[in-house]
From TrEMBL:
Taxonomic superkingdom: Bacteria
Source species of the chain: Alsobacter ponti
Gene field: der
Residues engaged in binding GTP 1: 9-16, 56-60, 119-122
Full protein segment contained here: 2 to 164 of 456
Protein name: GTPase Der
An annotated Gene Ontology molecular function: hydrolase activity
Amino acid sequence: MTFTVAIIGRPNVGKSTLFNRLVGKKLALVDDQPGVTRDRREGQARLGDLDFTVIDTAGLEEADPASLAGRMRAQTEEALASADAIVFVVDARAGITPHDRQFADLVRRAAKPVILLANKAESRAGILQTYEAFGLGLGDPIPFSAEHGEGLSELYDALREAL
Ligand code: GDP
Ligand code: MG
């Protein structure tokens, strides 16, 4: 039995950085340009003794042509549909934005276990905004840093419970 975890969130919160860390290879494109991950990417993730399939997704609002935006939304919905659990990522430094709330609504509708990561919270940066993430109604946010690998044991515990 293999489990699938979808990484969801608006562009630039650090989804691809997390994906690369979990998969251990640079399969996903990380860029300072929001939303550079245009295609869904899958990889085999390992965290402690957990093995699972992880899906990286692009955002849905960064494209100008309506058709492309629609494709990205469809991609997010497809990832949500095929996931056993969802890792929802927000940017603890930027705080919660209207786009985060849009994505949170999609995630809530999927009615699957959700793990909320307040990313970019290394060295306690953005710890205050982490509390803002409580307001999304997706449970307790885990302060996290995909770039620095902080919060991985909390993510492990949450995945163990979810899967
Ligand atoms: P995505 O659009 O959600 O896939 O985000 P990316 O993974 O492409 O990351 C967007 C930007 O945030 C890049 O410049 C990353 O280096 C940066 N980033 C990702 N994770 C962290 C983190 O934990 N801390 C900080 N400070 N920056 C991060
Ligand atoms: Mg990306």
